[in-house]
Specification:
With 212 residues, this protein is of the alpha+beta class. 47% of the residues lie in helices and 13% in strands. The chain has a four-stranded antiparallel sheet with strand order 2-3-1-4. A hairpin with a 2-residue loop joins strand 2 and strand 3.
């Protein structure tokens, strides 16, 4: 993997992480989580970003997204961050920054990493001891992708659609994918790539990005 300048490429999937400053809580209650989801919905529509998966954790959130334009993802994250901080500070009587800094992100090779990234993202609540199973955690896209509930925030990626020919079969296949899981090495690779800005893919994929 190679460290690249942070870039966003239209039509390509990106794994994005935004953390609270000093890993402080960024959600205090249900209203905070719901407000973040509503802001994500609004900003995704405004800046033409498809959200394939997301998880809202007490001190951070992760999204897997494909922007339609080069500016879409940065504008989405900037507007989302500013709007949520304004809401959060007003509601909880605080001032100052809420975020650790700029968001972290990686461009990924969808054919090889889209589904593993979804699994890593949607099993974070289990990894952090917040829920025994992904379906037991309310604030993620797992319920939608597994066919347990509808979430109009989510727009499925072509790699997800390729799991099967019918919605029921796709959802069942995705459930099996998550149950099978990924190795600890793959999970670490995904999270490190996003945190450090490494491109996530084959040597040929990385070389292509470097040329761009």
């Amino acid at each position: 993997m190679a460290r690249l300048p942070r870039l966003t490429l239209p039509g390509m999937a990106h794994y994005v992480i935004q953390r609270g400053n000093n890993l402080q809580s960024i959600f205090e209650d249900v209203q905070d989580y719901e407000t973040m989801k509503e802001l994500m919905r609004e900003m995704a529509r405004r800046f033409q970003v498809d959200l394939h998966a997301y998880v809202l954790l007490p001190a951070q959130f992760h999204v897997l997204a494909t922007p339609e334009t080069e500016e879409g993802l940065p504008l989405f994250m900037q507007s989302l961050g500013r709007s949520y901080v304004r809401y959060f500070n007003n509601r909880h009587g605080r001032t100052g920054t809420l975020w650790e800094g700029r968001y972290r992100s990686t461009v990924l090779e969808a054919g090889a990493y889209l589904l593993p990234c979804m699994v890593v993202l949607e099993t974070q609540p289990v990894a952090e001891g917040l829920a025994p199973r992904p379906q037991d955690y309310r604030w993620s896209s797992y319920g939608h992708n597994a066919g347990l509930q509808q979430d109009n925030l989510v727009r499925s990626h072509a790699q997800y659609w390729a799991l099967a020919n019918t919605p029921f079969a796709r959802e069942a296949a995705y459930q099996r994918t998550v149950e099978h899981g990924v190795t600890g090495a793959v999970a670490e690779e995904v999270l490190q790539a996003a945190s450090k800005g490494w491109a996530l893919g084959s040597p040929d994929f990385v070389a292509q990005l470097q040329n761009q």
